[in-house]
Write a structure and sequence with these properties.
Layout (H helix, E strand, L loop, with lengths): L1 H19 L36 H7 L2 H7 L5 E2 L9 H16 L4 E7 L6 H21 L7 E7 L10 H7 L1 E8 L1
Parallel strand pairs: 2-3
Antiparallel strand pairs: 1-4, 2-4
Amino acid sequence: MKKFLIYTLAVVLIFSFAVSCKKKPKEVPPPPPPQQQEQPVVEKVEAPVVQEPQLTEEEMFLQKSLDQINREKPLGTIYFDYDRALVRDDARAVLDGNAAWLKQFRTAKILVEGHCDERGTEEYNLALGEKRAKSAQDYLLSMGIASDRIKIISYGKSQPIDPGHDESAWQMNRRAQFVVIEK
């Protein structure tokens, strides 16, 4: 009986040991990280830069007002000697530039203003101013500018640029000035 008891005790011990020792759960490998679906690579495309159409010089000219054009002074002023209406040599280059501008902008019409210094009578200066404007007009006509695009006027001594009473002021006031009157 002793043997039986030892065997029973051994079986109970083994059984209790077996029950008390839980099986370790199988280690389940961690689930793989969720696969990220590869998204197609989208190249970042910048919106095309829309350039405004380039305007020609004539289109820009036509968009401006007469005041804007005259403030820009596209036409040069010429000066005259005392008591003279002949175009001086230094004025020819200015008139050539004015003629080139008028050829470029074929729709433009101008007014040539003749001016004088304060010396002389009003009547004399009005006549001299007209001769100066006419002299400038004739030069432009000789350069191929149509006569219907050029008008003349004389202001005599009524619109001086320099109000002084000396030779430097008078020299600035003896002039033919060009004004755009139509585009």
